[in-house]
Design goal:
Number of domains: 1
Protein name: VOC family protein
Distance between the termini: 19 Å
CATH topology: 2,3-Dihydroxybiphenyl 1,2-Dioxygenase, domain 1
Largest sheet: 4 strands, mixed
CATH architecture: Roll
Order of helices and strands: EHEEEEHEEE
Radius of gyration: 15 Å
InterPro entries: Glyas_Bleomycin-R_OHBP_Dase, Glyas_Fos-R_dOase_dom
Number of strands: 8
Pfam families: Glyoxalase
Helix content: 10-25%
Strand content: 25-35%
Number of helices: 2
């Protein structure tokens, strides 16, 4: 089994698409303002945005995007006007991450974990 895509709801899909394109995702399906699908620049995962009139932010869901060079990514995104809610944090689970929110308030973490993403020292066999 492989995770194919994540779909989020948005009050303003056009604004959300512009935001996620700034993050580096590529628009591959444009059915705006109702729906859009983007693909991640690495791997096979896709990300879609569906229009809604009633937005409920689920505080239990966080979107994670992994990058190879977190400081460079943060710098590049800041130059594009992306606002972060934290500095780069070094976490006890061996990830480096930075926090932000999308235009609809969905929490996002951009991080680098490398081998520790799936194989931390405490992984069970």
């Amino acid at each position: 089994m492989n995770l194919n895509q994540i779909t989020i709801s948005s009050l303003d899909t056009r604004t959300s698409v512009r935001f996620y394109k700034k993050l580096g995702l590529k628009l591959i399906v444009d059915a705006l303002p109702r729906y859009a699908r983007l693909e991640c620049p690495d791997g096979d995962a896709t990300f879609s945005i569906h229009h809604t009139e009633d937005l409920i932010i689920n505080k239990g869901v966080t979107l994670y995007f992994e990058v190879e060079n977190l400081p460079k990514t943060v710098s590049d995104l800041q130059q594009k006007g992306i606002i972060f809610n934290s500095e780069i944090l070094e976490q006890s689970w061996l990830w480096h991450e930075v926090h932000l929110k999308d235009p609809d308030g969905n929490p996002i973490i951009i991080y680098h974990a490398g081998k520790n993403r799936k194989n931390p020292p405490w992984r069970i066999n």
